[in-house]
Amino acid sequence: MGIGAISDLDAAMKMAVDLGAKAINMSFGTDDSALDRHAPKPHSDVVAYALDRGCVLVAASGNSGGETCYWPAAFPGVIAVGAVGPDARPCSFSTRGDHVALCAPGERIRTLGLEGYQYATGTSFAAPFVTAAAALLVARAEQRSTPLDGIEIRRLLVESAAPFSGPAVTGCGAGVLDACDALQKLDAYINDSLPDDSGDVEESEPVLAHQPGIQ
Q1: How many CB atoms lie within 10 A of CB 133?
Q2: Please, which pLDDT band fits residue 87 given cuts at 50, 70 and 90?
Q3: Terminal-to-terminal C-alpha distance of the chain
Q4: Interatomic CA distance for residues 64 and 93, integer angstroms
Q5: Angstrom distances, CA of residue 83 to CA of 91, 131, 158
């Protein structure tokens, strides 16, 4: 587990937005229960700054194992991500709540450490999968001249999520990330939004202009 200053995290996020970032992963958070009841929520200003500029924000839901809020994951407009294991079931440590959008693999994820590669576990390692999928959706939409905001990205990710295995669960979002299906739903969404030009074109027989020597 890492520890960082909230001001440093906010400064890094603002710099990323100012440099043109389209999607930002936020694998950090503060448990609401650790805050004074009247204290402002951490990262509120920079989250609003990023959302106002069309940046897609994805955050780890937290590792408390209970139903609570971590900030910035619980802010409206942020895509909160929980963790599942190899069995496509929510991990016992994954923080739950109505704000959680979906889950992604977060158990024994091969990643970089200070001394090379390592296996790490937590929602901090699940969120980047969703951020990468969001970046793919942004790139695909821009390729097809259809800019998307974070609300539409969240909708596509939620609607395309694969169901959890086994019994139904609550507080863990719509299911498990399915990036392929999300891209397919994006293409279908763009295709459906294109104007129908079929009624504007009249069909006619080809006309050949008469020229000498041409029969």
Answers
A1: 25
A2: very high
A3: 83
A4: 6
A5: 6, 14, 15
- Please identify which residue in the block is written with the tokens 């969240």: 154
Residue 123 exposed, middle or buried by CB count within 10 Å (0-12, 13-18, 19+): buried
**Domain spans of the chain, in order of start:** 6-190
- Give the Cα-Cα-Cα angle 51, 123, 4 (nearest 5 degrees): 70
Higher pLDDT, 81 or 37: 81
C-beta neighbour count of 145 within 10 angstroms: 7
Rounded CA-CA distance 146/149 in Å is: 10
User: Quick check: helix, strand or coil at residue 207?
Assistant: coil
SS3 readout for 15-40: HHHHCCCCEEEECCCEEHHHCCCCCC
Cβ-based neighbour number of residue 192 at 10 Å: 7
- Return the axis-axis angle of helices 179-193 and 150-160, rounded to nearest 10°: 120
Fold of 6-190: Rossmann fold (3.40.50)
Looking at this protein, which amino acid is placed at residue 126?
Answer: A
User: What percent of the chain has pLDDT above 90?
Assistant: 84
Q: For residue 198, what are the CA distances in angstroms to 187, 190, 192?
A: 20, 17, 14
Q: Please tell me the predicted confidence (pLDDT) of residue 4.
A: 82
Rg of the chain taking only CA atoms, in angstroms? 23
- pTM of the full predicted structure? 0.88
